TrEMBL record:
A Pfam family annotated for this UniProt entry: Acyltransferase
Subcellular location, principal: membrane
Record's keyword annotation contains Transmembrane helix: yes
PANTHER family given in the database record: ANCIENT UBIQUITOUS PROTEIN, LIPID DROPLET-REGULATING VLDL ASSEMBLY FACTOR AUP1
Top-level lineage group: Eukaryota
Keyword Transmembrane helix assigned: yes
Protein name: Phospholipid/glycerol acyltransferase domain-containing protein
A GO cellular component entry from the record: membrane
GO biological process: cutin biosynthetic process
Residue spans crossing the bilayer: 39-57
């Protein structure tokens, strides 16, 4: 059995301030944004049937409509999309140039979709792990990484030769105003980087989870009455700050992380994807593939 702790409505002891804690507590899980008071719990229960139907409509609009129209369809369905900065134009394939690698802060699985919505064109994305349901309903191409540096590097280079690409170097989502440590692999593969600062706003349900079924993440996000995504395109990284000018991949990754953090008024951390999953789920977040059973062979 696991121990459970209940905080009374009016505790006699004052809560310890964040400054006095031994280290910042930045991870939490669960779907509810607000404390489930009796009134809020009643509102959530009454809203769920309406919210689920609305979420299905929003997901259908994002999946079935042409990407240039999705922006307006989202606004018509109560999903606010705010675009800041100057998005780069699409790469002309006839020039044989490598595509732009969009480096996004990771708030939910929908980051690449709202990036594509802001650009008005579908941008493929590489992911560490995504549910089969999310792949089916996704309006953009998603490619799974193998967590093998050589294989992943080869795959990303190939995708960049075909056009623009989106990646979230944090490896996993983080709800709080922090950025997890960026993996430096992306910095070794191209010199065309555009940092993108992502912010989302939810009033009722969180669109992320570590221990729950990730296939429901898009539904929970779109079940909010009026969710919002703010996409801020930052300046393209100068070549003198890339690996081509002699910078190490870690220097490039850390610089981009600091630029995005400064834009969002966030704090950079040294926590990794594995650190987050160990704190929340007791594992390193690695998905173990089930052994494949050959057809025609029966087990006893």
């Amino acid at each position: 059995m696991q121990e459970a702790y209940i905080v009374p409505p009016k505790p006699e002891v004052k809560a310890v301030t964040a400054i006095k804690l031994p280290k910042p507590i930045i991870f939490h899980d669960g779907r509810l944004v607000q404390k489930p008071t009796p009134i809020m719990a009643l509102l959530i229960i009454l809203w769920i049937p309406i919210g689920f139907i609305l979420a299905c409509l929003r997901i259908a609009a994002g999946s079935l409509l042409p990407m240039p129209i999705v922006y307006y369809a989202f606004w018509a369905l109560g999903v606010r999309v705010i675009i800041n900065g100057n998005p780069p134009p699409p790469v002309n394939k006839s020039d044989n140039k490598s595509g732009v690698l969009f480096i996004c802060s990771h708030r939910t699985l929908l980051d690449p979709i709202f990036l594509s919505t802001a650009l008005g064109r579908p941008i493929p994305a590489v992911t560490y792990s995504v549910s089969r349901l999310s792949e089916i309903i996704s309006p953009i191409k998603t490619v799974r990484l193998n967590r093998d540096r050589a294989l992943d590097a080869s795959m990303i280079k190939k995708l960049l030769q075909e056009g623009d690409l989106a990646i979230c170097p944090e490896g996993t989502t983080c709800r709080e105003p922090f950025l997890l440590r960026f993996s430096a692999l992306f910095a070794e593969l191209t010199d065309e980087f555009v940092p993108v600062a992502m912010v989302n706003k939810m009033s009722m349900f969180h669109g992320t989870t570590a221990r729950g079924w990730k296939g429901m993440d898009p539904f929970y996000f779109f079940m909010n009455p009026s969710p919002a995504y703010e996409v801020t395109f930052l300046n393209k990284l100068p070549y003198e700050l890339t690996c081509r000018s002699g910078k190490s991949s870690h220097e490039v990754a850390n610089y981009i992380q600091r630029v995005i953090a400064a834009t969002l008024s966030y704090e950079c951390t040294t926590f990794t994807r594995k650190d987050k999953y160990r704190a929340l789920a007791g594992n390193d977040g690695t998905v173990v593939e089930k052994p494949k059973i050959k057809k025609g062979i029966m087990g006893c």
